[in-house]
Amino acid sequence: MKFAVFGAGGVGGYLGARLADAGHEVHLVARGDHLAALESDGLRLESVDGDASVDLPATDDPTEIGPCDYVLFCVKAHDTRAAARDLESLLGEGTAVVSFQNGVDNEGWLGDEIGEDHVVGGVAYIFSTIGDPGVVEHTGGPARFVYGELDGERTDRIERLDDALSACEGIDAVLADDVRVELWRKFAFICAQAGMTAASRLPVGEIRDTDASWAMYRRIVAEVCAVGTAEGIDLPEDTVDEWLAFARDLDPEMYSSLHYDLTHDKRLELDALHGSVVRHAADVGVEAPMNEAIHAILRPWADRNDR
């Protein structure tokens, strides 16, 4: 099948390398130094689950690629709307655009731009990043990718995607019964891990060791679950405890991508994370003071980095 990876960074680059190794036609959409390295030297994946080197066509102009069976949409959430406007040339009648992004709003934003029929929800559980231009480093995490049609239907295209990803080495592929539940489950964890490490400028180990901070971490997860439940998302009752147990086992030196972006003067995904919680909470009448606090603390930094 023909895939375009729109945003060939840590997540997209990993998926592109694994799919290409499995024999699929893969095109990468990237920019800057990373694109230059992909064009000259190909994509190198350095992974705890096995390395790979693939020479794939790469471009910053999607019109060079043409219609695809699947577009794996892996850009930062703050780039979703702008990037979605560049997808038209990649879309055929049944093309699925699979969002592997942080947050619970991206699928709606994509649907506004390209039509809901093209949009598929996705969740990525992987620790990977661009180590150097042209090099994706996968340092840990289960490399689990969860996906599904937003209405839960088992369409031919989602089953073909499931077959393709399931056949790839180094991918734990999961076709979700209800991908919206999976989106909100991960959202609850991301808001706690990203918010607390970015706001405190400290790794998760020191947050765990500080009673007040660890209590706030838990409350962030609980607030997001409460908001999701109020919106009709059927989250498992043990979601909070599950994520707290998971976080207790994280490397004590672990931060988050939000912390990285904050400390490297990059744009923050704040609007798609805690800003989104605040908006959704207001819509359903649920209190979310811990998420409001994180949003208020980081808002000036997000505005500064936007400039």
UniProtKB/TrEMBL annotation:
Catalytic activity: (R)-pantoate + NADP(+) = 2-dehydropantoate + NADPH + H(+); (R)-pantoate + NAD(+) = 2-dehydropantoate + NADH + H(+)
Enzyme class: oxidoreductase
Keyword Oxidoreductase (UniProt): yes
Keyword terms, alphabetized: Coenzyme A biosynthesis, NADP, Oxidoreductase
Pathway(s) annotated for this protein in UniProt: Cofactor biosynthesis; coenzyme A biosynthesis
EC number(s) per entry: 1.1.1.169
GO biological process, one term: coenzyme A biosynthetic process
SUPFAM superfamilies: 6-phosphogluconate dehydrogenase C-terminal domain-like, NAD(P)-binding Rossmann-fold domains
Annotated coiled-coil segments of the chain: none
NCBIfam families according to UniProt: apbA_panE (TIGR00745), PRK06522.2-2 (NF005091)
Family membership: Belongs to the ketopantoate reductase family.
Protein name: 2-dehydropantoate 2-reductase
Source species: Natrinema salaciae
